[in-house]
């Protein structure tokens, strides 16, 4: 096309694809915009778009028209206002104005009929700054009135430089005439809104685009443009009628010949597109201070008595509109929000009008093509020829039907504008757009789940790191506190702590020995196993004694007693093991055998007591009398069982010099008091032994597992005990002589 002086004859680029469905606009565009009676109840979904809004009202509050009901928590926020005065009667989930009809949180406003409003503050736009104008638009809750409902304050504050501003007055969808009537009746207000947009984004060129099937709107806009301040910087462009030339990307292609890349937005090309209804709402918000409380809606179709365009408050129930326009709600006819190409059927009419709702289509059953049975694709290719986005609808259909959504994405499914051209021309009556919508929803869900999983993983890692850091901090604080206490601790306190640690170690060793003895007592073992257990117990006792000597010398007497208990426990373990072995070989013993065993234990205990007394006397005379005295209590030998275990330990271990109690007494007993107590204990033990031997009449024999031996008598036991005591005494004297030689 050649360029001429007339704006209408400017260069236009052809639209790829597209169709020419019946327009059916004459049903509603011949009468002026009217206003419906006020509804008794209004439904205000929260939010209508964008991030979740925070409610600032409660049930029972009385609100005025234009009062904000929500507070934004981020930039992506669309304010919700009360359309009239009344009382908040409920805040609960209600069905949404969506094909799914899923419930959303909704404020229910009961109108009081007074229509009292908050005072609207008018302003002179020339006196407002850029930020003040944007704030007024944001506070008014202005959104895209063409159907997308994208917040206008974000779209009018782009990050990149804008070269062109396009005002969309095409309205290509059949039946819809709301923008047509708005341009006819409010052209001046629309241009005032365009001037505000120019002040905000300062584009180099402004284009107002209108289809050639709206001659009255074109004439009205020409007159208003000639009388406005935009006459030199704005041009009105008439374009051919073709569906879907009113789409944002398609309109840019027609006017500029440029194609918006896949996944990009027009702002990336330096272009912003706004609807004529949005421009009118912006001038009301900035100049009059009025929030977006109402909009023009087309009510059309052959199933309604009063088709036309009406000013309808945001939040008005669809049921109320249908009742006022003569639609029989009892019939099972469909109600479509939007046009026949891109609209959707409502599952219920008890839903509200939204800021992006521009039409209610009420067709007869025969007015639109009825849904027939879907047939197989014949691969005619008609869908690809009419696609305005130059996609391959056939491949998208196959992958969407097979739930191969990843392959559908490779064919640019997200670039589909869901215009419905492919479904319109399909001879097999395949609802292609429905398949695409399901596929898009599944892809969005998968992406959201993946995003949530990544966020959960990041939160888990952050929590783990935080807990580990807290643990390290606590350990560091504990170490610092311990070092600080140790630095301020005196020598006596350190010695007391060391002694306490030594006692804890000794008690732990004694507990382990007792546990070992219990194990030996419950399960009969051989002599070799009993010897090993006794050796282990004795080693632990010696280790505990060594640790105590290295740690501190202040609690020597207590440690000696603990070590003596460990040694006695080891001897008990050996005795129990031998007793269990004898019981296993011979069965249950009679009372006489048990008496002989007890007398043997008593005799051995007496011998041990005498040996201990003599050793204590020699040690007391050999050591330096100035050493610290230690009292050793021998009351543990009172029971026959312990006396036998102690005597056996002396007989078995005196030659090796490994008795823990002898070593402790040799190192710590230094006074005559200790010698005296030892002699008294020996005398007491001897008397008890004689008393135990008096009624004994030995008449049984012990039969070991290896070689049979004669039955021991009390005299033999006493003799063995005296021999063992003599051997121990001789060895002790040898050690004393060696010790004196080392001193000399």
Word description of this protein:
- With 744 residues, the chain is α/β, with parallel strands linked by helices.
- It has helices spanning 130-140, 152-155, 178-185, 187-201, 215-227, 248-256, 276-288, 318-325, 382-386, 393-401, 405-410, 421-425, 432-488, 491-522, 527-551, 556-586, 591-622, 640-653, 660-668, 672-693, 714-743, and strands at residues 34-35, 41-45, 54-55, 62-63, 70-71, 86-95, 103-111, 164-169, 205-211, 234-239, 271-275, 294-300, 308-313, 336-337, 344-345, 359-361.
- The strands form 4 sheets. The protein has a 6-stranded mixed β-sheet with strand order 1-13-12-16-14-15, sandwiched between helices. A 4-stranded antiparallel β-sheet has the order 2-7-6-4, with no helix packed on it.
- Helix 5 links the parallel strand 9 and strand 10 (234-239).
- Helix 14 (491-522) runs antiparallel to helix 15 and helix 16 (556-586) crosses helix 18 (640-653).
- It is elongated and about 140 Å long.
- It starts with 33 loop residues before the first strand and ends with a helix.
- The relative contact order is 0.07.
- Residues 1-8, 552-561, 587-597, 624-672 and 695-712 have low confidence and may be disordered.
**Count the strands?**
16
Q: What is the strand arrangement across the widest sheet? A: 1-13-12-16-14-15
- Helix percentage range: 40-55%
Q: Tell me the strand percentage band.
A: 5-15%
Shape: elongated
Distance between the termini: 132 Å
The major beta sheet can be summarized as: 6 strands, mixed
Mean pLDDT: 79
Low-confidence stretches: 1-8, 552-561, 587-597, 624-672, 695-712
The helix tally amounts to 21
Class derived from helix and strand content:
alpha/beta
């Amino acid at each position: 096309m050649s360029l001429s002086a007339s704006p209408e004859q400017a260069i236009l680029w052809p639209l790829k694809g597209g169709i020419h469905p019946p327009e059916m606009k004459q049903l509603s565009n011949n009468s002026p915009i009217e206003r419906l009676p006020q509804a008794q109840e209004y439904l205000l979904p929260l939010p209508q778009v964008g991030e979740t809004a925070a409610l600032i009202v409660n049930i029972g509050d009385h609100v005025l028209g234009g009062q904000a009901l929500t507070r934004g928590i981020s930039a992506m926020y669309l304010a919700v206002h009360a359309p009239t005065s009344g009382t908040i009667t409920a805040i609960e989930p209600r069905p949404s104005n969506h094909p799914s009809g899923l419930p959303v949180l909704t404020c229910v406003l009961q109108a009081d009929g007074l229509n009292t409003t908050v005072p609207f503050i008018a302003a002179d736009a020339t006196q407002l700054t850029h930020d003040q104008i944007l704030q007024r638009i944001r506070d008014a809750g202005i959104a895209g009135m063409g159907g997308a409902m994208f917040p206008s304050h974000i779209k009018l504050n782009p990050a990149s430089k804008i070269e062109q501003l396009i005002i969309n007055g095409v309205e290509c969808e059949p039946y819809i005439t709301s923008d047509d009537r708005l341009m006819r009746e409010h052209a001046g207000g629309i241009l005032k809104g365009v001037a505000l947009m120019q002040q905000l984004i300062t584009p180099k060129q402004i284009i107002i685009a209108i289809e050639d099937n709206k001659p009255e709107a074109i004439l009205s806009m020409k007159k208003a443009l000639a009388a406005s301040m935009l006459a030199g910087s704005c041009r009105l462009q008439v374009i051919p009628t073709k569906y879907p030339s009113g789409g944002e990307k398609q309109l840019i292609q027609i006017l500029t010949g440029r194609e918006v890349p896949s996944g990009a937005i027009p702002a990336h090309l330096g272009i912003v597109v706004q609807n004529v209804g949005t421009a009118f709402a912006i001038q009301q918000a900035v100049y009059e201070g009025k929030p977006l409380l109402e909009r023009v809606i087309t009510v059309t179709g052959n199933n309604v008595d009063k088709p036309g365009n009406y000013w309808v408050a945001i939040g008005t129930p669809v049921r109320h509109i249908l009742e006022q326009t003569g639609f029989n709600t009892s019939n099972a006819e469909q109600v479509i929000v939007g046009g026949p190409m891109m609209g959707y059927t409502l599952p219920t009419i008890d839903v509200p009008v939204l800021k992006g709702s521009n039409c209610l289509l009420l067709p007869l059953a025969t007015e639109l093509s009825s849904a027939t049975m879907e047939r197989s694709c014949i691969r005619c290719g008609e869908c690809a020829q009419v696609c305005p986005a130059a996609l391959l609808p056939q491949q998208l259909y196959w992958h969407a039907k097979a739930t191969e959504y990843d392959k559908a994405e490779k064919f640019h499914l997200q670039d589909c504008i869901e215009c419905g051209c492919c479904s319109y021309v399909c001879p097999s009556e395949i609802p292609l757009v429905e398949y695409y919508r399901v596929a898009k929803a599944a892809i969005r869900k998968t992406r959201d789940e993946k995003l949530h999983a990544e966020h959960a993983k990041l939160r888990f890692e952050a929590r783990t790191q935080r807990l580990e850091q807290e643990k390290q901090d606590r350990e560091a604080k504990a170490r610092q506190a311990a070092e600080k206490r140790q630095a301020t601790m005196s020598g006596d306190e350190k010695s007391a702590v060391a002694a306490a640690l030594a006692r804890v170690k000794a008690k732990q060793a004694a507990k382990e020995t007792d546990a070992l003895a219990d194990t030996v007592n419950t399960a009969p073992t051989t002599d070799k196993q009993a010897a090993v257990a006794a050796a282990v117990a004795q080693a632990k006792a010696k280790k505990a004694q060594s640790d105590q000597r290295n740690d501190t010398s202040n609690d020597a007497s207590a440690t000696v007693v603990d070590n003596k208990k460990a040694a006695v426990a080891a001897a008990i373990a050996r005795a129990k093991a031998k007793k269990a072995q004898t019981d296993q070989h011979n069965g249950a013993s009679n009372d006489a055998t048990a008496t002989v065993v007890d007398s043997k234990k008593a005799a051995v205990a007496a011998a041990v007591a005498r040996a201990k007394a003599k050793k204590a006397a020699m040690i007391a005379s050999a050591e330096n009398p100035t050493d610290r005295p230690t009292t050793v209590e021998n009351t543990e030998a009172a029971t026959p069982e312990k006396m036998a275990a102690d005597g056996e330990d002396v007989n078995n271990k005196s030659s090796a010099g490994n008795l823990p109690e002898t070593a402790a007494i040799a190192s710590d007993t230094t006074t005559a008091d200790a010698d005296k107590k030892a002699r008294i204990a020996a005398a007491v033990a001897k008397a008890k032994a004689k008393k135990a031997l008096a009624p004994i009449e030995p008449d049984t024999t012990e039969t070991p597992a290896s070689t049979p031996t004669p039955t021991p008598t009390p005299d033999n036991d006493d003799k063995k005990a005296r021999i063992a005591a003599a051997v121990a005494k001789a060895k002790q004297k040898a050690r004393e002589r060696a010790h004196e030689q080392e001193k000399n």
